[in-house]
Amino acid sequence: MKSGDERHLTPRALAVTRYLLMHGPSTRADLAGELQLSDASLSRVARLLVEQGIVTEHADRGVSTTGATGAAIGRPRQILTAVPGSRHVVGVKLTGDTAYAVLCDLAGTVLATASKALPEPEDGVVPVAGAVRVVRGLVTRLGRPVTRVDGLGVSVGGVVEGRSVVRDGVFLGWRGVDLGALLTQACGLPVVLSNDVVGLAREQLWFGAGRTHATFGVVTVGAGLGYAVVREGQVLEHLIDNGHLLSHSPLDASGPVCRQGHHGCVSAYLDRTDVAARLGRSGSAVSFEQLAQLDPDWFTGAARALGHLIATVAGGLQTERIVLAGEDVATLYADPVTTATLAARLRPGDDPLQVSTEPLGFTDWARGAAVVGIQAVLGAL
Ligand SMILES: [Zn+2]
To answer: What is the DSSP pairing of strand 321-325 with strand 354-358?
Structure first.
């Protein structure tokens, strides 16, 4: 997405909008204090945001100070509220065979969903022009009920450069594809591209863990493991190894073997593709619960592996806050073995880590992409 877009907010206007989206309606006094703005600056910013339709302002007379006679004294408090319907963005998650899309408002609420199959790969490469046509069709379809779509966020598994180029799109067979430029041309919209797990981290930064923690880790568990890092309010765009070193931490030398031949590493227990293949169930459709019925011992090992993985990520990042995302990761996290493993890793007397579990279906992935789109539209990237 081009910088210098006339629709981007000024840094102060962005700070106010972001605060209202993250924390809900606020008084002028609270905003001025939290964001260290003078009354005059805040007045200018509020007027600008009201003009642009992003914020509404109203007087809160119900809680104004009352004097001894019960009569209101002083000016009523001015409350600012973000207007969710002031912007709309489409988010698309591309897998190896399907485009999953959502329409979101400014507050990241999903208003509609749609999906369409991508063209069949040719020599292991999904045809780019055909994929662009699929995304354009989804944007048109989802945008029908709203006055206009303000931007498009797209996420893929793999390495993304400059928020536009798919440098290494493992599942699509793409290398060096400037998908952002192609989609901007095809859809006539500002487009921002991101790695799919980075998209989830950006979504959590505004609408999840970031509300209370400036530093946190995101771990996705399912058909493969994924990681993202937020440090002091900044999302790390690139991991050096896509989390490979973490995924292959050794746990039990007599444990099952991963695809790379390690005995008892984290992946051998938690990568659902590895586990399913070992238990004679290929394909990503199989759930942890189904696998647990096939091999209860594996499930106990997986719960222990999850506890260790959470502790390792939290220790490396120096945060007590971890977001676990996965289709059925909540089942695994709820196992007493996970909790006991985590407790045993802590120093005696330390508070337990703060771990939340988030569902992670295709709509959730697409919503992550949409939130990156919202941040780009507002000029936050
Ligand atoms: Zn391994």
So the answer is: parallel
- The SS3 of residue 122 is strand
CATH for 88-201+364-378? 3.30.420.40
* In the chain, % of residues over pLDDT 70: 94
Q: How far is the CA of 24 from the centre of ligand 1 (A)?
A: 43
pTM of the model: 0.91
What pLDDT score was predicted for residue 367?
A: 97
Instruction: Return the bridge partners of 99, or none.
Output: 94, 116
Rounded to the nearest whole angstrom, what is the distance from the C-alpha of residue 260 to the centroid of ligand 1? 5
**Measured in angstroms, how far is the CA atom of residue 263 from the centroid of ligand 1?**
7
- Residue whose C-alpha is closest to residue 374's, from 21, 120, 100, 42: 21
The fold for domain 213-359 equals Nucleotidyltransferase; domain 5 (3.30.420)
The domain spans of the chain are: 11-82, 88-201+364-378, 213-359
Reported CATH class of domain 11-82: mainly alpha
Length of the chain (residues):
381
